[in-house]
Amino acid sequence: MIRNLALCASLALSVATSFAQAPVPAPSAPPAAAPPVSTAPATPKAWESLSPEQQRVLQGYQGQWNTLPAERQQTLAKGSQRWISMTPQQRAGAQQRFSQWRSMPPEQRQLLRQRWQEFKSLPPERQREVRDSFNRFRQMPPERRQQLRQQWRQMTPEQRHHAAQGMHAAPPPHRAPH
């Protein structure tokens, strides 16, 4: 079960950072998806080439649009399209995650970016395992999730590493109640 918690913790961090990879948008702007890996250089996108809905979402960038790097323009355009396709509930969740991200100290953001890169470097099958484990964790009763979190906190860094690697870690040390 600790192994599952380790996987869940990894995915939770990577989910949180999925928005970290996107540029910080204007207040009503969407979470931008990470740009696709491409060898071709990005070409600038004219403001007028955006749909009226995209222009509305990106209105905070209108005055500076032509001075943005082409990669940033494409990322914002793609993110705005994603935002437009979201349900109101999905948008509310995205706005909440943006607020959480902005309130984090820079060191924590950097750590989350690193964890996201680690997650993205996993083979697809391993990413799927981590996601499945995270979803199982989310379906657990709150009391069980809290119990697993407590066990995780009581583990040494080495035990956590072994748990995250899928090995059987030694049980966490028993702590006497204070």
Structural summary, described in words:
The two termini are 26 Å apart. Residues 1-36 and 167-178 have low confidence and may be disordered. The protein is built from eight helices and no strands. Helix 1 packs across helix 5 (106-121), helix 1 packs across helix 6 (124-139) and helix 1 packs across helix 8. The chain has one domain (2-34, 44-164). The protein is elongated, with a radius of gyration of 20 Å. By secondary structure, the chain is mainly alpha-helical.
- Secondary-structure-derived class: mainly alpha
Approximately how much beta-strand content do the residues carry? under 5%
The overall pLDDT, averaged over residues, is: 78
Distance between the termini: 26 Å
- Computed CA radius of gyration, to the nearest angstrom: 20 Å
Uncertain runs: 1-36, 167-178
Work out the helicity level. 55-70%
- Count of domain modules: 1
Output the helix-strand order: HHHHHHHH
Number of helices: 8
Q: How many β-strand stretches? A: 0
Question: Which outline best applies?
Answer: elongated
Biggest sheet: strands, sense, closure?
A: none
Secondary structure: elements and pairs:
Elements: H1 2-18, H2 52-57, H3 70-85, H4 88-103, H5 106-121, H6 124-139, H7 142-154, H8 157-164
Helix pairs in contact: 1-5, 1-6, 1-8
